[in-house]
Amino acid sequence: MGAIVAIVGRPNVGKSTFFNRLIQRREAIVDAVSGVTRDRHYGKSDWNGKEFSLIDTGGYVLGSEDVFEKEIDKQVELAIDEADAIIFMVDVEAGVTGMDEDVAKLLRKVNKPVFLAINKVDNAQRAADAVEFYALGLGEYYTLSSINGSGTGELLDALVKVLPEKQEEESELPRFAVVGRPNAGKSSFINALIGEERYIVTDIAGTTRDSIDTKYNRFGFEFNLVDTAGIRRKAKVKEDLEFYSVMRSIRAIEHCDVCILILDATRGFDGQVQNIFWLAHRNNKGIIILVNKWDLVEKETNSVKDYTAKIKETISPFEDVPILFISVLTKQRIFKAIETAVEVYKNRSKKIVTRKLNDIMLPIIEKTPPPAYKGKYVKIKFCTQLPTPYPQFAFFCNLPQYVRDPYKRFLENKLRENFDFTGVPITIFMRKK
Q: What is the DSSP string of 95-141?
């Protein structure tokens, strides 16, 4: 399971700039990933070969500073609760403020690594001014500039040393994580499947406290069902609820094989559901979308078709995802949902023999070669599936740097047409022959 790092601090100290810098670093390494820009508050980053998920708590605060003062304790406590390490960012220009002291007071009680990052230090005078932050009682600090990136390396070097090593799934059983917004019907879905009230279900969003595994056997296939927690306390503030569900979803998604994304039909495929979808996509997990509470929606002749088309338009270009309409209350299509999730799991672990792959893909490439770029013609000679837990393919050619993203999508679509990869993200690499 990957580590989680939270960036905390008052508004306008540069948290988001720092966050964006790290996310861009990650994008540059792995190529542009579809959907990254849809998600401003969390993303994946890496440093010295160690991956971690990054949370920008600043994006969850609305309103003026006086509103922030009321909610800052909750925000930081939520971040502290889930994160493996915390970056506490302050602003050297403003010096130590009362709100900085409030956050520091909370962080001093925490038994987790806390890194004090002093931002906007871009000259010697400001480096000297940073000394006053010793007053926060958090020990050593790191000076940096989010805008130009100076000093970030030293902070990240220290950070990755304390992060836990990524553990591979120890259980030989596949893991299916049931994810979605609070109160979408995740716990009810599992209760309906196993036929007992295993989880407490109420109308209060976020009743589930912890992610609990349930061993389940259906269609001659045994796996673990994981219910993701919504929140640990009754949230009065919407931002807390969303923030916590995101952090819990990250934990569950990183440690599963297939994500069963449940959404409330009456609320639609909104921003928060999209965030969870793209998070699963970026982690290369199998995905199945379940539209719950379909019995509560007023239907017309083409309701299912229109609803499906709307979701696919939102998740484009990754449209090859099963979308099922269910009702947990009446148990409508819930077993079909599990059957589909099992198929997606098999698709994700599918291995295609190299000879068969080349016999099918090379004639397609010969008929529709990559378009010439800067007068150069790309010739793809060979392709193979890489030995990874999810589908990744390498295409060997003379000029890999001239193959653009649209052609990679063309190759992906042809792979999907000829081999069933429904519900599974595919990664394509162009390599030098």
A: -S-HHHHHHHHHHTT-SS-EEEEEE---SHHHHHHGGGGGGGS---E
Q: What's the per-residue H, E or C state across 390-417?
A: CCEEEEEECCHHHCCHHHHHHHHHHHHH
Query: How far is 150 from 146, CA to CA, in rounded Å?
Result: 7
User: What is the rounded radius of gyration, in angstroms, for the C-alpha atoms of the chain?
Assistant: 24
Q: Which of 155, 147, 159 is nearest to 52 (CA)?
A: 159
Type and span of the H or E element at 242: helix 238-254
Q: How far apart are CA 169 and CA 213, in angstroms?
A: 13
Helix orientation angle between 405-418 and 354-367, rounded to the nearest 10 degrees: 130
Spatial distance between the Cα atoms of 320 and 348, rounded to a whole number of angstroms: 13
Which residues does 423 contact at the CB level (< 8 Å), separation at least 6? 258, 286, 287, 288, 320, 321, 322, 340, 343, 344, 347, 348
What distance in Å separates the CA atoms of residue 261 and residue 285, rounded to the nearest whole number? 11
User: Are the beta carbons of 112 and 87 closer than 8 angstroms?
Assistant: no
**In Å, how far from its chain's centre is CA 148?**
26
Q: CA 245, CA 403: separation in Å to the nearest integer? A: 39
Per-residue pLDDT of the chain (433 residues; tens, 9 = 90+): 568 888 888 777 888 788 888 876 433 222 223 333 223 366 778 888 888 888 777 533 334 455 444 555 565 676 677 788 999 999 998 888 888 888 888 888 888 899 999 998 888 888 888 899 998 988 899 999 888 888 899 999 999 999 887 655 445 678 888 888 877 888 788 878 876 544 434 444 443 434 456 677 766 777 777 776 543 333 433 445 555 556 666 777 877 899 999 999 998 888 878 888 888 898 899 999 999 988 888 878 788 999 999 999 998 888 899 999 998 888 888 889 989 999 999 999 999 999 999 999 999 999 999 998 888 899 999 999 999 989 999 999 999 998 999 999 999 999 999 999 999 999 999 998 7
